[in-house]
Specification:
Keywords: Endoplasmic reticulum, Repeat, WD repeat. It comes from Cricetulus griseus. This is Neurobeachin-like protein 2. Probably involved in thrombopoiesis. Plays a role in the development or secretion of alpha-granules, that contain several growth factors important for platelet biogenesis. It is a single chain. Helices cover 16% and strands 25% of the residues. By secondary structure, it is of the alpha+beta class. Strands 2, 3, 4, 5, 6 and 32 form a six-stranded antiparallel beta sheet that branches. Strands 11, 12, 13, 14 and 15 form a five-stranded antiparallel beta sheet that branches.
Length: 697
């Protein structure tokens, strides 16, 4: 299954991250969050938990990934080897093993997650109704690592939460975990290394360590131990990596154990002792390309534009096209899961635009074309220039407010456009690229004010003036989106004012909504259960929550407004919450936001004061100086390759932000065959016209 997935090749070529690859390996090997005895396993990657600054360029700060955690201290190797060689079972049923414990088991997971429910209750249940001795609890990262160095019997590896979930390091629920015997110090939050200023900082630096060049170079050695050829047999014996026989898949056939007591005993051992993942490889895992080798390979292939987030110091804005003269561009988006047949590999994608008048454009977009040798190629929808052929979203719209970018969403495969804001309170479905109205659903009691789709293309969430949100399932046929189910799968309640913005993540089972009274509510998607209500900090009179976005790890980005008293100046703020609704950071804004999106580890924010801001997601700090525009920004999106940002402006222009220096434009450019077509295309923009706002800002 691993070979068929192509994941190893993607990882080797640095197309996916170390974290993502490890999660995929765990999943394929049968590890799951739903079974504590088969919980996903991750490696200890660092051994420096005492320095004031973590220097990831120094190999000495990293753990030796070629050795099992039980012998990461070289002094333990001889002890472990002697134990293995001297072991002999008189009954002859138990094979020799190096370790009498396991690197991943239910007790170990509860050990790390003791401060987070339901693991707290599970831990107490395991310990006969009380917490374990404080000294044996997970109270310090440095102490946990030191325990691995001091005892070959403590072989616990890490869990994925160490790389994305800061909440488990804090005793937010105030559990009485006792006091340490030697120092009489009360156990509360986990004591972090000196190089981490807070749990968020620890997670960020730990994640950077996992993705570092050293770990990338040596991670295949750890994979060989846990999932690969050193998991079993002579190679495992030589690597000092043999565990108790019951932990291995297929070692015990419970169906042929006749004695009920013996069977239950074996089941208890397998469940509580830990289970070794399924063996995925029987030959050495290939190493990962170095960063230089991967860059050289991409340069040879010459098929990709550089990522804007990896080249923030080289950002440039380019004028692409006037989509609709003088009309605000409310949506400019390249759906990120468009499919292409084998024959049309390298063909253009669909770029969807919607103007304030409802004018729909379905343009051609190519982020890179070696024939043109430039940033991007954009071909304007020819129907937009012909009044008889123009595609218009059907109105009428709500009097006084008109169309809103919040009430527009495009299916990830680019087959459907969903729209709200209609006077009759309907949610309408329009087919793309033809622009034909396919359906209209009237379930809300008032106007639909906002829409959002999950990245998987499974669910759409709608918010309304009637104070409710509804979750709708997208209908699929032949692998393509064809419409919405006639009834919502969930109706979410809790707001006391009109819903102003929504966001949804099927993977994280989160539906988040903001309202005109400044409240943010989190529900689950599958069951529609209320999780939490958040009220962003601010002045005395909270204003509406204008923008919401979700990060890939459940970070909630909220943009709110407030004022001190009626008639006072409105202030704007950006807030970052954890997946569990805990406030992590706040940032006062000097400009009024008009568009917001999250891409990877960055936030893109467009403002009424004609700027595009790029911020670090986990810190809410500027990543680069703002990019100036001539007029206010009305929409922002990032292309699927993260090679460009698409910015829609108040005057109807589409601006494309890319990275690097543009190539020289050849005079014969427009006569060249484009997208394997012999026809000449007149309305083409190819990144050659740099957008310069000059003094007009």
């Amino acid at each position: 299954m691993l070979r068929a997935s192509g994941l190893t090749q993607k990882w080797v070529q640095r197309e996916i991250s170390n974290f993502e690859y490890l999660m995929q390996l765990n999943t394929i090997a049968g590890r799951t969050y739903n079974d504590l005895s088969q919980y996903p396993v991750f490696p200890w990657v660092l051994q420096d938990y005492v320095s004031p600054v973590l220097d990831l360029s120094n190999p000495a700060v990293f753990r030796d990934l070629s050795k099992p955690i039980g012998v990461v201290n070289p002094k333990h190797a001889q002890l472990v080897r002697e134990k293995y060689e001297s072991f002999e079972d008189p009954a002859g049923t138990i094979d020799k093993f190096h370790y009498g414990t396991h690197y991943s088991n239910a007790a170990g997971v509860m050990h790390y997650l003791i401060r987070v429910e339901p693991f707290t209750s599970l831990h107490v249940q395991l310990q006969s109704g009380r917490f374990d001795c404080s000294d044996r609890q997970f109270h310090s990262v440095a102490a946990a690592w030191q325990a691995r160095l001091e005892s070959p019997a403590d072989v616990k590896e890490l869990i994925p939460e160490f790389f994305y979930f800061p909440d488990f390091l804090e005793n937010q629920n105030g559990f009485d975990l006792g006091c340490l015997q030697l120092t009489n110090e009360k156990v509360g939050d986990v004591v972090l290394p000196p190089w981490a200023s807070c749990p968020e900082d620890f997670i960020q630096q730990h994640r950077r360590a996992l993705e570092s060049e050293y770990v990338s170079t040596h991670l295949h050695e750890w994979i060989d131990l846990i999932f690969g050829y050193k998991q079993r047999g002579p190679a495992a014996e030589e690597a000092l990596n043999v565990f108790y026989y019951c932990t291995y898949e297929g070692a015990v056939d419970l169906d042929h154990v006749a004695d009920e007591r013996e069977r239950k005993a074996l089941e208890g051992i397998i469940s509580n002792f830990g289970q070794t993942p399924c063996q995925l490889l029987k030959e050495p895992h290939p190493p990962r390309l170095s960063a230089e080798e991967a860059a050289s390979r991409l340069a040879r292939l010459d098929t990709n534009s550089p990522s804007i987030f990896q080249n923030l110091d080289q950002l440039k804005a380019f004028f692409a096209e006037v989509i609709s003269e003088g009309e605000p561009l409310l949506l400019a988006l390249v759906p990120h899961r468009q499919s292409h047949s084998f024959i049309t590999q390298g063909s253009s994608d669909l770029l969807v635009t919607v103007s304030a008048s409802g004018l729909l454009g379905t343009h051609s977009w190519l982020p890179y074309d070696r024939n043109i040798n430039n940033y991007f190629t954009f071909s304007k929808d020819p129907s937009m220039g012909n009044p008889k052929m123009q595609k218009l979203l059907s109105g009428p719209w709500v009097p006084g407010s008109g169309m809103s970018g919040h009430a527009l969403a495009v299916a990830p495969d680019g087959k459907l456009l969903f729209s709200g804001g209609h006077w009759d309170g309907s949610l309408r479905v329009t087919g793309l690229p033809r622009g034909k109205l396919l359906n209209q659903l009237s379930r809300h009691l008032d106007v639909v004010t906002c829409l959002a789709l999950d990245t998987c293309g499974i669910y759409l969430i709608s918010g309304s003036r009637d104070t409710t949100c509804m979750v709708w399932r997208l209908l699929q046929q032949g692998g393509f989106s064809v419409g919405l189910a006639p009834k919502p799968v969930q109706v979410l309640y809790g707001h006391e004012a009109a819903v102003s913005c929504v966001a949804i993540s099927t993977e994280l089972d989160m539906a988040v909504s903001g309202s005109e009274d400044g409240t943010v509510i989190i529900h689950t998607v599958r069951r529609g259960q209320f999780v939490a209500a958040l009220r962003p900090p601010g002045a005395t009179l909270p204003g509406p929550v204008s923008h919401l976005a979700l990060g890939s790890e459940g970070q909630i980005v909220v943009q709110s407004s407030a004022c001190e008293r009626p008639g006072a100046q409105v202030t704007y703020s950006l807030h970052l919450y954890s997946v569990n609704g805990r406030l992590r950071a706040s940032l006062p804004l000097a400009e009024q936001p008009t568009a917001l999106t999250v891409a990877g580890d960055f936030i893109l924010l467009g403002t009424l004061q004609c700027s595009l801001h790029i911020l670090h997601l986990n810190k809410l700090r500027p990543a680069v100086p703002p990019l100036p525009m001539k007029v206010p920004v009305r929409s922002v999106s990032v292309t699927k390759e993260r090679s460009h940002a698409l910015v829609g402006l108040e005057d109807g222009k589409l601006i494309v932000v890319g990275a690097g220096q543009p190539s020289e434009v050849r005079s014969s450019q427009f006569a060249r065959k484009l997208w394997r077509s012999s026809r000449r295309i007149s309305q083409v923009s190819s990144g050659e016209t740099e957008y310069n706002p000059g003094e007009a800002r």
